[in-house]
């Protein structure tokens, strides 16, 4: 759900080319896979793929280990 929300948000802000870095390998692997998943999770990933194809060029979705992205996970 987070990726889907961010895709909508980035579109609304009309930002230029962006790399989406996620620390969920399962989400990134499923997003970049051509395998169809008939679960609720798969339906959300399909929505993300569809929106991504319609709205984004020169964008990417990549996996980044949580340890490499400590700032995003630091509690304030």
Characterization of this structure:
The chain is mainly alpha-helical and 76 residues long. It has a domain at 21-73. Helix content is 53%, strand content 11%. The chain contains 4 helices and 2 strands. The chain has helices at residues 2-13, 25-32, 40-55, 70-73, and strands spanning 19-22, 60-63. Strands 1-2 form a two-stranded parallel ribbon. Helix 1 runs parallel beside helix 3 and helix 2 packs across helix 3. The radius of gyration is 13 Å and the shape is globular.
Q: Overall mean pLDDT score?
A: 85
Distance between the termini: 23 Å
Tally the beta strands. 2
Tell me, briefly, the overall form.
globular
SSE string, helix = H, strand = E? HEHHEH
Task: Please summarize the sheet with the most strands.
Answer: 2 strands, parallel
- SS-derived structural category: mainly alpha
Helix content: 40-55%
Radius of gyration, rounded? 13 Å
The number of helices is 4
Give the low-confidence spans: none
Strand content: 5-15%
Trace the largest sheet across and list its strands.
1-2
């Amino acid at each position: 759900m987070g990726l889907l929300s961010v895709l909508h948000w980035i579109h609304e802000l009309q930002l230029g080319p962006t790399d989406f870095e996620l620390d969920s390998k399962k989400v990134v692997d499923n997003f970049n896979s051509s395998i169809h998943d008939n679960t609720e999770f798969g339906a959300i990933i399909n929505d993300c793929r569809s929106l991504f194809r319609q709205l984004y060029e020169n964008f990417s979705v990549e996996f980044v280990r949580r340890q490499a992205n400590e700032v995003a996970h630091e509690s304030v």
